[in-house]
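Fill in residues.
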């Protein structure tokens, strides 16, 4: 189901972070790969952000938001996951 591509990308990022990955560029690239893997969709954004001010990060730390917006069959899907990382 194409509409699951955003959810899968966010969960991929969450899993990477829970396994210890802290490089935001790497995590965002993996999210892009997940969305693009076999899905006809257009990425608006896929980001790992500081939850307090929504600024972009280079390294995962503290309270974060994994956020994304993707167009699937003309519909814009938006979702996010909030995590606290030690």
């Amino acid at each position: 189901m194409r509409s699951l591509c955003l959810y899968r990308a966010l969960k991929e990022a969450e899993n990477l972070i829970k396994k210890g990955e802290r490089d935001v560029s790497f995590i965002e690239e993996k999210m892009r790969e997940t969305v693009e893997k076999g899905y006809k969709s257009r990425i608006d954004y896929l980001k790992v952000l500081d939850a307090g001010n929504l600024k972009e990060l280079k390294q995962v730390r503290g309270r974060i938001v994994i956020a994304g917006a993707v167009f699937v069959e003309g519909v814009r899907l938006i979702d996010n996951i909030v995590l606290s990382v030690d």
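The chain has a mean pLDDT of 94.
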